[in-house]
Amino acid sequence: MSKQTNPPVRRTTVPQIRARKGGDPIVSLTSYHAHTAAIVDKYADFILVGDSLGMVMHGMESTVGVPLDLMIMHGRAVVKGTKRALVVVDMPFGTYEESPNMAFRNAAKVMKETQCQAVKLEGGARMAETIRFLVERGIPVMAHVGLTPQSTNVMGGFKTQGRDEATWEMHLNDIKAVAEAGAFAVVVEGVVEPLAAQMTRAVDIPTIGIGASAECDGQILVLEDMLGLSPWTPKFVKVYGQLGGMIEAAVKDYAEEVSSRAFPGEDQVYR
Ligand code: KIV
User: Fold this and answer.
1) Which atom in ligand 1 lies closest to the alpha carbon of residue 222?
2) Is 266 a catalytic residue?
3) What is the torsional sign of CA 253, 241, 185, 130?
4) C-alpha 133 chain-centroid distance
């Protein structure tokens, strides 16, 4: 009898994501650690190790303080925990804006040390030269336009973009510039629906929306937000699980059982 072998699991590739423009919606979530990544891996086309981890995992007030080494540490864990989803790691603030050379050095470090398949960086037209420089040298880039959280100090907070129609031309120029520069996909964050529709139609690469309506070619959410683990929930998030409440109930039960000596019980003791 011949021995049956399962076909090897192949990771989604950058060209495969790129080819999904206008097709079946692209599913993606953030993940920052191996065990959650292994779950997300079963359902997501790509996983983003977002610099939101600074706020979600490390209690920072914004993503501005996130160091490169932290992204590398979490990126490595997510790659190790996954087999099929494309893994994209965020370039944190201050590691790519200064020059294309600096961006290349740091992005290459991220890719070598995490073994991820692509990096993401924020900014539209102003980052086009850098995106072109990286792509020409073998680094796939996902762009990020609209609300760009690393610019929170310039914007004065996390503000929905495009409420004033006079700004639409700038946002359209941004998305066209990153697409022309060679980005394989672009996150569109926090923009009003009609602008998201125009931005999606303006480029031939997939738009991945977060707070940017169903007009985009795919969607991404921060995993902890959709699991009900975050202290507050932005309007654009749908909460699919109430893990915060479940964790609290479990921790409370544990504390009570330790206090009353009900834990460890018979089943948890080596005889
Ligand atoms: O850092 C992050 O999690 C992100 C997503 C919000 C797109 O950039």
Assistant:
1) 3
2) no
3) negative
4) 22
48 C-alpha vs ligand 1 centroid, how far in Å? 7
- Domains located in the chain, CATH noted: 14-240 (3.20.20.60), 243-271 (no CATH)
Length of the chain: 271
C-beta 230 within 6 A of ligand 1: no
| Ligand 1 close to Cβ of residue 91 (< 6 A) | no
> Is-above-0.85 flag for pTM?
yes
Q: Is 47 in the pocket of ligand 1 (CB under 6 A)?
A: no
Q: Name the residue at shortest CA distance from atom 4 of ligand 1.
A: 50
Q: In the chain, which ranges are continuous DSSP H helix?
A: 14-18, 34-40, 53-56, 68-81, 100-114, 128-136, 152-155, 168-181, 193-202, 223-226, 243-259
- Between CA 216 and CA 249 the distance in angstroms is 37
Model confidence pLDDT, tens digit, residues 184-219 = 999 999 999 999 999 999 999 999 999 999 999 999
Which residue is catalytic, options 122, 189, 215, 224?
A: 189
Q: Which residues of 128-157 are buried (b: 16+ CB within 10 A; e: fewer)?
A: bebbbbbbeeebbbbbbbbbbbbebeeeee
pLDDT tens, residue by residue, 121-160:
999 999 999 999 999 999 999 999 999 999 999 988 899 9
CB of 210 closer than 6 angstroms to any ligand 1 atom = yes
